[in-house]
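lol ok so funny story. i was supposed to be doing the assay writeup but got distracted and ended up predicting the structure for this chain instead. priorities right. anyway since i did it might as well share w the group, maybe its usefull for someone
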Amino acid sequence: MMMAARKLVVLILILSFLSSSADAHDIHYENIWIFKGMYELRPGERAELDGFTVKVHTVDMNNGQPSAILLVYINKDFKESFYVDAAANSEQVYNDELKIDVLAISEGIVSLEAYRQRYEQVWITSIAKTSLGVGDIIEDGGYTLQVAGVTEEGATIVAGSDEGLTEDIYLSGDHRKFSEEFMLHVIYVNRKSREVLLETLRPGKPEIKTDILTGKSTYDSGENIEYQLMVGNNGTIPLHGLIVCTSSSEADVQEEKIQHAGLDPAKAKKFMIPISAPVTPVAGNISIVSEVTGYDYKGNQYSGSVQTELRVRPYISASKSIEKLEKLTMDRDFGTDEYFRISILLKNTAGFPKAVTVTDELDPSLIPYDLESTEWAVLVEANSVKEISYYAKPTTPGNFTFRNAVVQWKDGGKTYTIESGPVEEVFQIHGSMVTVEKYLSPNYALPGEEIKITVNMVNIGDRKVDAVLSDEIPPQFSLVRGQNNWEGTLEAGGSEQIIYTLVTEETGQLRLPAATVDFTDENEQQGSSVSEEMLLYVEDMPGSSQEEKCYEEMTYTEDAGEYTETGYEPEKPDIGRLKAAGFMVSAFITLFCTLAIIPAVAYLYINKVYE
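and the output, tada:
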């Protein structure tokens, strides 16, 4: 019996604690009609309301008073139908849980508001638990609370506001709602210390927070955009009747309006909104805006919006890739060990085919294999990829970079151009190559005048080579000094220069053959290089002036009665270098003598005058 009694006492204490906690907690809640949103529905359309579904079955616009039949479902199970209009039958209630208020029926559309009766949190602590003695005062907004006294009957509290004073006696746990905006809760009355522990409460508010999540910032034309809208309630009470409206300047938003029943405080909802990027021939930015509205339990509206910008590529795009391949030993022409495979990938994301022109400019030292040019006219089918692939052989070793491929096409009478993405990699081609260049100084001479020949050799490969230079001297020339051949070793990057001097008694235009370098690298790979041929001009007599004078002859035209100028070019005498020099010397002597005579004549004249 004692054990049973003890268990009963413990159970009573637990129940007392739970009930007192519930009572304290319940003052924050009210059983009220909760606004769930306003909807405009056509026949067949529905509104989802926290487990309830309201569907417009039919709309009758033929009678004087438009009417409609509404169907109510719970978890997709049909429950009841209602006849509604915008007059006497505008409000319908199902099972004291769902209220429908029809605002208007026009043009086949039913405009209605929906309410759910729920036990929901309304009140939020404003001033937390505060202990007041007799005569103490606290203020909360426009309300003043004063403990006037504490007796065995309870605590006397005077509440003052713009509406006047109110005095009441409160026991522990009592609460009073002074208005829809203010509540007093007396938590505990201590009669011994004559103190009161109390708190104040005010209605909470929801708060909309929005954020956009996208998979990436750049999309292809026509691509499905990964658009996710996060809507959260950062407020203190539930948010109801959410409406999400999404629009875009260019993109195709497939669900422009989405409705959701509501969000509790500190909760969030992710909306997946299907959006397609526009099909455009030029790259550009698109703007996507989402606006969210919701309501509190009274129907007060709250709003939030968020915007993002995304980049959309043109519907034609191109990428370029380079692959370096090893040559077979037998194919190692040009003195290089590798060659390139070049691939250009064309992508058409539009729903129609498009003819394009592709141009891929190569370095001059690259020779495309079995191609006359690196320009192609191709048709890229709708929503497909087209590949252009070809090979190029380097004629010299060294480091190679590649330009972007250029693609052009027409759309609506306009020409559009794009480039492939850059190829950042620098490719090194191995091999052996010696270049040779030949120069003359001067390239215009007189018979017997010395001509300096300079030959430069440079090993532009990455291997050491044994080189042999041969530079033929034609029979009409004589070697004065130096040597016209060379044999030796050139390190990678090394160079050699030979200089020799020639003379000739021949005149006219003389040809000097090209210099040739034959080389063999350390891998026994052989090659040769040839310079350009040189031309030397040797005069047959002291030189002739290259300047020409133009003379003008005045002629009279009888018909026009005026003079005209007719230019003609008389035969020009050949004045060689020696003649020109003689003429300059004689002219100088003549001028000097003339200047010397003038002072002498002046002296004689003055002397005669004074005599």
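Residues 7-24, 543-580 have pLDDT under 50 and may be disordered. The first helix runs from residue 2 to 26.
back to the writeup now i swear
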